[in-house]
Amino acid sequence: MPPAGPAADVPGGHPLPNDPANPETPTPAAPAATPPWGADFDAERAWTLLQNVRADLTAEKAKVATLTTERDDAVTARDAKEAELVTVRADLDTAARGAILARIVGKYPTLAGFEDLLSGATEEEVETSAKRLTSIATPATPAEPAAPAEPVTPEPDPALPPRPEPALTPGYTAEQPPAPTDLDAIVAAARKSR
């Protein structure tokens, strides 16, 4: 029969160690009297070693901090040089484009003032663009200004019937022509009604 008390509640029915309700349980043995680092341990030597390791760690942390600062300074300097390089390249590209445009405008003086319309990255491309613009701006054959001509009206052909003259009066149709207006009768009627 299993023992009564808290040991009986343990799964498997094994008693708990050091259970005061069950004095039959064995108590673990007392720890060994020798330290785990051995019998030849020298505390003075261990303390010196510990102090040296701490000093080395502090020195290494200082080196890491110095190297981190130097790296950050180098990255900042590199970024500044890259920004300066971008600016110099942009200035060089602008100067090279200006030189190309100056040569092209020298060849095609009609394009002076219209350099912004010239496209292309190389001198050949810009010259092709200049040729196109010049061909558009210059007419193929210059025409002499014509004197203003008087309007020419053609003579009517006698074989054709004459053109009908419209007789348009508002409110009437071609089937119902307006009645002739007698102005004298209108004036006489107006005088009588006075």
Write the layout of secondary structure elements.
Layout: H1 43-107, H2 123-137, H3 183-192
Helix pairs in contact: 1-2
Give your account of this protein's structure.
- There is one protein chain.
- With 194 residues, the protein is mainly alpha-helical.
- The protein has a domain of 96 residues.
- The protein is 46% helix and 0% strand.
- α1 runs parallel beside α2.
- The protein is elongated and about 155 Å long.
- The relative contact order is 0.03.
Please give a quick description of this structure.
With 194 residues, this protein is mostly helical. Helices cover 46% and strands 0% of the residues. It has helices at 43-107, 123-137, 183-192.
List keywords for this structure.
194 residues; single chain; elongated; 0% strand; 3 helices
How many extended strands? 0
Low-confidence stretches: none
Outline: elongated
What would you report as the Rg, rounded to the nearest angstrom? 58 Å
Per DSSP, what share of the residues sits in E-state strands of 2 or more residues?
under 5%
Order of helices and strands: HHH
Q: Mean of the pLDDT scores?
A: 80
Cα distance spanning the termini: 150 Å
Please give the largest β-sheet.
none
